[in-house]
UniProtKB/TrEMBL annotation:
This is Uncharacterized protein. It comes from the Bacteria.
Amino acid sequence: MPKYGRGLNRELVAMVNAGRIREPFGVREVRQLIEIKGWTPSPTENYINCCLADGASESHSSNYKKYFESVADGRYRLRQEFRNGDWL
């Protein structure tokens, strides 16, 4: 069972698709998501950074879904295949 909702990255995909978080996003926007969702305890900075980086890294585990593309240092956007209402 995911720690945060459907999983931190999946929840982030849904919020971007809903227009509640703008791209490019990073740790600050993830913190906004956590505040909106009221998740306690809040994930650590390291956990958030790892989720974002792993969700964009082609060389990370093949079992880890690649939801994001890195566009700058610490900034990401959704991959095209995750831009739809199925995630809301």
